[in-house]
Amino acid sequence: MATVIKNGTIVTADLTYKADIKVEGGKIVEIGPDLAGDETLDATGCYVMPGGIDPHVHLEMPFMGTYSADDFDSGTRAALAGGTTMVVDFCLPDPGQSMLDALKRWDNKATRAHCDYSFHMAVTWWSEQVFNEMKTVVQEKGINTFKHFMAYKGSLMVNDDEMFASFSRCAELGALPLVHAENGDVVAAMQQKLMDEGNNGPEAHAYSRPASVEGEATNRAIIIADMAGVPLYVVHTSCEQAHEAIRRARQNGMRVYGEPLIQHLTLDESEYFDKDWDHSARRVMSPPFRNKQHQDSLWAGLASGSLQCVATDHCAFTTDQKRYGLGDFRKIPNGTGGLEDRLPMLWTYGVATGRITMNEFVAVTSTNIAKILNLYPRKGAILVGADADLVVLDPKKSKTISAKTQQSAIDYNVFEGKQVTGLPRYTLSRGVVVVDDGMVKSREGHGQFVAREPYPAVSKALSTWKELTAPRKVERTGIPASGV
Ligand SMILES: NC(=O)NCCC(=O)O
Ligand SMILES: [Zn+2]
Ligand SMILES: [Zn+2]
Fold first, then answer.
1. What pTM, to 2 d.p., does this model score?
2. Atom of ligand 1 at shortest range from CA of 58
3. CA 472–ligand 2 middle distance (angstroms)
């Protein structure tokens, strides 16, 4: 059966033009004027864009003594409702656990997905087994990205020597390392000091993770990546210090990518000073929300291209779960939601305000990450042969964000009360209409794992240059005889 999206304006990362799109067998099969099919979707007054790709989510994540509340069912429904058609989750081996065993668990959880998905693999400990398994993960399991937590001391954190070893292995395998960049040792010391001083509320979470802690770790990870000869992707870049390190590295020719979250772009640190403990605790995440200057820096990075992608780090906990940290902010599960809200919030606060263009919107929500993760042009593109993952965005459609109407399983929304415009009239996942005028009509299990090949081009360029510029022994002709 062929579906035609008619009368819309196609918006991609680099073009805006009027054309119809014909979809068949899950793929885009034709783009042009006056197309006909068995089913017609009217896109009059709408923009037809590649579906959003969220490269950073944690669905049913085991973390801080509990599990994040949105699983692959509710989480991917939330994604589709907001125009996101693919998510990338993190497979987290326990310390000492085989990556391949952990992956079985993630494969199992993800069978419930309503939209396509992929995985990053986390390096949570180091050994010869990890070194060997990384090759299997890349070459047999379709995962070309490895995450490193520089924070969460005592659980997920890895040290510099482990990071250097893992980054070097990524370089050999043509894989991309990712980092959560915060100095975990400094955070742990600051947390203890705050607790000793009786500062145990959610605001102390933010005090224990100042921007300098993130800036230092970002810079360190960049230097380690450069020494290992590998590109680097920095997740949840939240502040000017981290952005500055990324900007500088890029100006020096390094392939470093930065990912602000929609939460950091639109919510600020005043959330932690609310008199209501629940309000502040619900917004505890790492890194914490920052001030307006940091937000301006992130917006400028998206506009100028020094930051590449907007994600959510969707890791949602209920109010009851957040209350594990009553009396000790260190026990508040870290994480916030945003999957359903990323596109409408970015459209409202980015495109509608003139901070970014429509084409930049597509670039930072879909196309850039598709290229970075080696998914392009299967995903992130409107081209014949691409997957028909599409969002028909109505720029006039609006709503007030409310936990009462959201897909997410939690009992609140950090964007509660925000008035947003720019909502999906339709969302298509591999050609299937999964959102129709705001109604989610998707099916559990429709989502498929998307395998990703390693990056031959970037790693080849880096290794070629490294070899050309490697220190070499000087071959001498005139060697003086020993004077002894
Ligand atoms: N960001 C956060 O607070 N929770 C999720 C885990 C992580 O990404 O650090
Ligand atoms: Zn993180
Ligand atoms: Zn995360």
1. 0.97
2. 5
3. 39
Separation of CA 446 and ligand 1 centre (Å): 27
Atom of ligand 1 nearest to the CA of 149: 9
Verify whether ligand 1 is closer than 6 Å to residue 286 (CB atom).
yes
Rounded distance from Cα 309 to ligand 1 centre (Å): 17
3-state secondary structure the chain: CEEEEECCEEECCCCEEECEEEEECCEEEEEECCCCCCEEEECCCCEEEECEEEEEECCCCEECCEECCCCHHHHHHHHHHCCEEEEEEEECCCCCCCHHHHHHHHHHHHHHCCCEEEEEEECCCCCHHHHHHHHHHHHHHCCCEEEEECCCCCCCECCHHHHHHHHHHHHHHCCEEEEECCCHHHHHHHHHHHHHCCCCCHHHHHHCCCHHHHHHHHHHHHHHHHHHCCCEEECCCCCHHHHHHHHHHHHCCCCEEECCEHHHHHCCHHHHHCCCHHHHHHCCCCCCCCCHHHHHHHHHHHHHCCCCCCECCECCCCHHHHHHHCCCHHHCCCCECCCCCHHHHHHHHHHCCCCCCHHHHHHHHHHHHHHHCCCCCCCCCCCCCCECCEEEEEEEEEEECCHHHCCCCCCCCCCCCCEEEEEEEEEEECCEEEEECCEECCCCCCCCECCCCCCHHHHHHHHHHHHHCCCCCCCCCCCCCCCC
> Is the CB of 334 within 6 Å of ligand 1?
yes
CATH 3.40.1400.10, applies to 51-382+394-419+454-461: no
Ligand 3 centre distance from Cα of residue 294 (Å): 20
Q: Ligand 1 within 6 A of 366 CB?
A: no
484 residues of the chain, pLDDT tens digit each: 999 999 999 999 999 999 999 999 999 999 999 999 999 999 999 999 999 999 999 999 999 999 999 999 999 999 999 999 999 999 999 999 999 999 999 999 999 999 999 999 999 999 999 999 999 999 999 999 999 999 999 999 999 999 999 999 999 999 999 999 999 999 999 999 999 999 999 999 999 999 999 999 999 999 999 999 999 999 999 999 999 999 999 999 999 999 999 999 999 999 999 999 999 999 999 999 999 999 999 999 999 999 999 999 999 999 999 999 999 999 999 999 999 999 999 999 999 999 999 999 999 999 999 999 999 999 999 999 999 999 999 999 999 999 999 999 999 999 999 999 999 999 999 999 999 998 999 999 999 999 999 986 777 788 888 889 888 999 998 889 886 5
**Residue from 54, 67, 272, 286 to probe ligand 1 pocket by mutation (most atoms less than 8 Å from CB):** 286
Domain chopping of the chain, boundaries: 51-382+394-419+454-461
Residue nearest to atom 4 of ligand 1 (CA): 335
Q: Is any ligand 1 atom within 6 A of the Cβ of residue 151?
A: no
